[in-house]
Amino acid sequence: MTRRAVRSADVAAIAPKFNDLTTEVLFGDVWERPGLVTRDRSLITVAALVTAYRPEQLEGHLRLALDNGLSRDELVEAITHLAFYAGWPSAITALGLLMEIAPRRAEAEPAPAAVCPRAGAPSGC
Questions:
Q1: Residue 30: which residues within 8 A CB-CB, separation 6 or more?
Q2: Which of 25, 84, 87, 89 shows the greatest Cβ crowding within 10 Å of its Cβ?
Q3: What is the Cα–Cα distance from 83 to 90, expressed in whole angstroms?
Q4: Is the dihedral of CA 63, 66, 68, 70 positive or negative?
Q5: 82-110 tens-digit pLDDT
Q6: Separation between Cα atoms, residue 112 and residue 115, nearest integer Å
Q7: What is the SS3 string spanning 3-41?
Q8: What is the pTM of this model?
Q9: Could you tell me the CA-to-CA distances from 79 to 15, 19, 44, 71 in Å, in that order?
Q10: pLDDT of 123 strictly over 50
Q11: By the 8 A CB rule, do 108 and 71 touch?
C-alpha cells in the first residue's frame, strides 16, 4: 500500500486540536521565532526528516525549503552529507523526492555563480 501525505483538512476533520496546534503553535509560533531565518529552519527540518526517514512529510518540506531560498544543489549536498549519518536508503529516498520536485523549478532557478577555490587562480579555474 502506497502512503500519501496527510492533508490538513483531513487532520482537522478527525483531530481539530492537533490541527490547531500544527497551524498555530508549530507554523504560527515556532517557525516564526526570530532566532533563525526560515531558510535555516527549512534546512534543519529537511535534515531531521531525512534522518528519521519520514518521506511523507519530507516532500512538502523539500518544496518549502525551495520556497524559502534553498537551492536544489544545496539540498542535494545536504542529503549527500546526511547519507553517511542517516543511511543510504534514507538519502536515496530523499533524492528521489527532490528529483520529482526540482525539475519543475529548475528553469526558475538562476545558474549558480562560478566559485574559484583558490585565490589568484586563472580565470575559469
A1: none
A2: 87
A3: 7
A4: positive
A5: 999 999 999 999 999 999 998 755 555 55
A6: 9
A7: CCCCCHHHHHHHCHHHHHHHHHHHCCCHHHCCCCCHHHH
A8: 0.76
A9: 33, 29, 11, 12
A10: no
A11: no
